[in-house]
Amino acid sequence: MAETLIQIGVVGCADIARKVSRAISLAPNAALCGVASRSHDKAAAFAAANGFPLSAKVYGSYEALLEDPTVDAVYIPLPTSLHLHWAVLAAQNNKHLLLEKPVALDVAQFDRILEACESSGVQFMDNTMWVHNPRTAAMAHFLNDAQRFGNLKSVRTCFTFGADPDYLKNNIRVKPDLDGLGSLGDQGWYCIRAILLAANYELPKTVVASYEPVLNKDGVILDCGASLYWEDGKVATFHCSFLANLTMDITAIGTRGTLHVHDFVVPYNEKEASFLAGTDTSFNDLVTGWAKQPNKHTVTTHLPQEALLVREFARLVAQIKFKNSKPDKKWPTISRKTQLVLDAVKASIQRGFEPVQIQE
Amino acid sequence: MAETLIQIGVVGCADIARKVSRAISLAPNAALCGVASRSHDKAAAFAAANGFPLSAKVYGSYEALLEDPTVDAVYIPLPTSLHLHWAVLAAQNNKHLLLEKPVALDVAQFDRILEACESSGVQFMDNTMWVHNPRTAAMAHFLNDAQRFGNLKSVRTCFTFGADPDYLKNNIRVKPDLDGLGSLGDQGWYCIRAILLAANYELPKTVVASYEPVLNKDGVILDCGASLYWEDGKVATFHCSFLANLTMDITAIGTRGTLHVHDFVVPYNEKEASFLAGTDTSFNDLVTGWAKQPNKHTVTTHLPQEALLVREFARLVAQIKFKNSKPDKKWPTISRKTQLVLDAVKASIQRGFEPVQIQE
């Protein structure tokens, strides 16, 4: 059995790698086989602090991990500006690739990563965890149900949190040479992904950034928003910010239904998550109350969403490794669409809030 | 005691007048003294069907009611295009004025109504019911609390419902010569009011309508949205529509807190209403859940919000009638601000989604 586990190594000791290391441990079809840092000591300390098995290896360089033939796949939590280099190198070393979001600084860079994955026949997946929660499948089922939801008319998403002064000064997400896309790349990524989910992954035609984004002195986005328009009249808006209290909402409204969720990226609790869904909601005759209200739907899961992500990733890798399957196209396609919209928002901000057309 | 009750007459038999007639009956300081229609029979039938007291009078013309010296105040639920004429005439007849929203076709018309009220020394109030629910006071208290909410950063509101084909063809709200402001005047009014409430009634500086509003063949708005911007960086967006499932949300995000409500205009239930409020909401250490979540706050009321509105209106009228007070300025000021923003949204749509500056 152990031989069928997908061996996943962690490239870098980012804070988020703690959560993902635990997820790799929890996934029944994956094994946490090692961690690399530019410092051997740092990697060793990380492994010790994060429950790595005794069999896990510690590497004093990223290259050493990538060159280890016992490693099937890597998780790369490095800053966005380093994705192109290390993701391509990982693919060239035939490592299947679980890459932190945003996947790249722009879609041109991302296409080079995808080309490298395709050349080597390795699986690509980005580390957007919440879409792997079974709640998300239940929400998608509702949103695609003509009887319960009808056709999507509008969707609004937000993800904000109040970063403290130290974060706003020192975190990699406010550094132009590290996570140069700032709040848009970090939180906006999730908002855009949720909008695409609600639109059944149909790309919008036009993207317009909202006025008054907040940028730091180095030009990194700390707060922004945008509106997205489809040809059939669907409209979406989102808002992401490092400067406001922790909030993460989806409100999707269809011709027949409405969906509300307040904890879409990280559910309040690990083992169960809820959303509100209403169909043909209506007032009573005198409009003094509602005859039909939205209902709460709760979905339970024995594994946290990040472990379900790893399980899905390892399942696809195992198909390739043991069954000679081709890499799955679904996840990289969705990643690319997310990045395309993100690029359009950034372009609209740079062009003074002009509408930007999305071209696939 | 009965002598101190404010005698309120209803000018027109609109559907909404059923709810407001009941509210006048329920308000402890008001009496439902009569109803007027252009047809005496229609007024009589309305009075019989809506529990008017035996003492209530029935008038075969609006003028007859306005000229009756036993009537202290009138509720005018007529289509918006008729507000200017009948509201001014009511004020000239020294009737205190409870006027259905939107208060006028534009702020210039509304100013003529206010001038007439001022000349006669009568109270003006618009019929925005939800702001009189004690839940709204609790929400406003939260939103103005520096410790629990901090400074407002963004607020998003929506009010949509799916009008049926008959409504979309025949309702006064889709007729350019009746409620010519369509969904913007009807539902957008509430969205704008909620945004102003969250901004503590500070007007935005700039208003930009969203692309792709839906207008009917006569140019009446069936679906639209807008973004509002303040000089200090606050941003608001709203969406109103006759073309999507019944939904009415406020999401307000401050530097320290977040407020969510899903039934802001008409609470699910008459006797109690809830909202979610979070302060310094946060993730746990590993970001696998929330360490601090929003909490549900429930506010009960023995009177429905529309009766509380009437009670407040009658209280102000009684102050004038029995205590020689001046008319209260708060409610007409808020009505005027709401209309100003509404006018700016309409202007932005007409000018091809150009930003429109608000001038008080």
From TrEMBL, chains A, B:
SUPFAM superfamilies: Glyceraldehyde-3-phosphate dehydrogenase-like, C-terminal domain, NAD(P)-binding Rossmann-fold domains. One of its GO terms (molecular function) is nucleotide binding. InterPro entries: Gfo/Idh/MocA-like_OxRdtase_N, GFO_IDH_MocA-like_dom, NAD(P)-bd_dom_sf. Residues 6-125 form the Gfo/Idh/MocA-like oxidoreductase N-terminal domain. Residues 145-259 form the GFO/IDH/MocA-like oxidoreductase domain. Belongs to the Gfo/Idh/MocA family. This is Oxidoreductase. It comes from Psophocarpus tetragonolobus (Winged bean).
